[in-house]
Automatic annotation (TrEMBL):
This is ABC transporter substrate-binding protein. Belongs to the UPF0065 (bug) family. The keyword Signal applies. The lineage of its organism: Bacteria, Pseudomonadati, Pseudomonadota, Betaproteobacteria, Burkholderiales. The keyword Signal applies. It comes from Massilia eurypsychrophila.
């Protein structure tokens, strides 16, 4: 009887393995959904749409974007973590995937163990921008004005755990001034209110600010990278504008639910690499002030290592700042 039960179990396991292998070989056979944990129109949404279209061409299937915003990206993350590990639900998130464990006391998922990493996508600089009629003409005047009017100045962000929240938190720590924060469910809505003059300033990714800056619709004061951007060479760095050592770059990574078969993960990583070499994607990224990562970083093992290192990096910073959310 025991032998029969063992044989049955072995056969079922073998059949399951064969089915998984067959599914991986035929993958994909239907539309793929890429979840973006922020509102449409924001910087992460922009990156996702560019990559999804090109990946879809390589995979010969449509890759649809689904925006699941809220709670700094954790609602979208939880949604994907609970999805079937069949390669038909993907997740594109930014640096917030590494800050969530420190920011949120209770998460319904594990930022590392609940996902299969596919690869890094891009590193995006951030910019300090303000409404068009903000009185300061340069970063020196901006810092002086903000400190002198801290009770009136409003700072917009995309919610707890977002890149704009993290940048703002570090900015306020760097200048030793607490400002009124206005959270949104994404940087798209936040940018709309900045354009409308309802809020004073924000720190946002170049993928969301470049066209607005070049169009003269908002004021730009500085970039958060070590060196100036080739796309906006006249924009100084924060390091040269009175905040030495201030540096924030927003990396984006692509994930699948934990348990997604390795052949499918590898197929997705290959499609990602092809997408990041697509001339159209590269040009659009350049227009937005960023560029695709190198092939060696657009792989599962590279994202896994980077995510762990970033969690280790930001955890102590968040704890020191006392920035928590329930």
């Amino acid at each position: 009887m025991k032998l029969t039960l063992l044989s049955t179990a072995a056969c079922m396991a073998l059949m399951g393995g064969v089915m998984t292998q067959a599914q991986a070989q035929n993958y994909p056979t239907k539309t793929i959904t890429m979840v973006v944990p922020f509102a449409a129109g924001g910087p992460t949404d922009t990156v996702a749409r560019l990559v999804a279209q090109s990946m879809g061409t390589k995979l010969k299937q449509t890759v649809l974007i689904e925006n699941v915003g809220g709670a700094g990206g954790t609602i979208g993350a939880a949604r994907v973590a609970k999805s079937a590990p069949d390669g038909y639900t993907l997740f594109l998130h930014h640096i917030g995937q590494s800050t969530a464990p420190g920011l949120y006391r209770k998460l319904s998922y594990n930022a590392i163990d609940s996902f299969e990493p596919i690869g890094l996508v891009t590193d995006v600089p951030m910019t300090i921008v303000a409404r068009k009629d903000f009185p300061a003409k340069d970063m020196k005047e901006f810092l002086a004005y903000v400190k002198a009017n801290k009770s009136k100045v409003t700072y917009a962000n995309a919610g707890i755990g977002s890149a704009s929240h993290l940048c703002g938190m570090l900015f306020m720590t760097a200048i030793g001034t607490d400002l009124t924060t206005v959270p949104y469910k994404g940087t798209g809505p936040a940018m709309n209110d900045l354009l409308g003059g309802q809020v004073d300033f924000m720190c946002d990714q170049t993928t969301n600010t470049t066209s607005q800056i070049k169009g003269g619709k908002i004021k730009a004061y500085a970039v958060t990278t070590k060196t100036r951007l080739a796309s906006m060479p006249d924009l100084p760095t924060l390091n040269e504008s009175g905040l030495p050592g201030f540096e924030v770059a927003v990396w984006h990574g692509l994930y699948a639910p934990k348990g997604t078969p390795k052949p499918i993960v590898d197929a997705l990583a290959d499609a990602l690499q092809v997408a990041l070499k697509d001339p159209t994607v590269k040009q659009r990224f350049a227009d937005l002030g960023t560029e695709p990562v190198a092939d060696s970083r657009a792989r599962p093992e590279a994202l896994r290592a980077h995510l762990k290192a970033e969690i280790d990096r930001w955890g102590p910073i968040i704890t020191k700042a006392g920035a928590y959310a329930d």
